[in-house]
Amino acid sequence: MKKVLIALDYDPTAEKVAETGYALAKTMNADVILMHVISNMEYYTSTVYTPVMGYGDFGNAGLTKVYSADDLKKETQNYLDKSKEHLGDDSIQTIIAEGESADAILSVAEEIRADVIVMGSHSRRWLDKILVGSVTEKVLHKTKIPLFVIPTRG
Questions:
Q1: Homologous superfamily of 3-39+69-151
Q2: Mean residue pLDDT across the chain
Q3: What's the rounded mean pLDDT across residues 8-22?
Q4: Does the keyword Ribonucleoprotein apply (predicted)?
């Protein structure tokens, strides 16, 4: 195992996913790649949840956050850089992908020839899983690359 791809969302539990995936990679002396997929601009305009910061924004209820595509990419890179800094390893690579999350993760994993994909699973509602399905579940069903799933119930 030479490359570990760690897919992060903006959920507050992403720190646990990054730390656990990083520890796994280091036990195998593998390179680490952190990635995030920008999939739906509407998701990033919520006043209830600020995905870029990873916490609810209750102080500005009623205001809508609007990110341009360029601003969102800059914020996402900042998020990945902070995650990299938290892990304390300058050799970590970062990737920002766009598109449907599961497909983008699988595409990047194949492109970089990842040996394992690390993801968190934090489905909170059974109805969401039935109606929408989780990104982790979609990756699990489509991947030919080993998948390390970290339960993160927030």
A1: HUPs (3.40.50.620)
A2: 81
A3: 90
A4: no
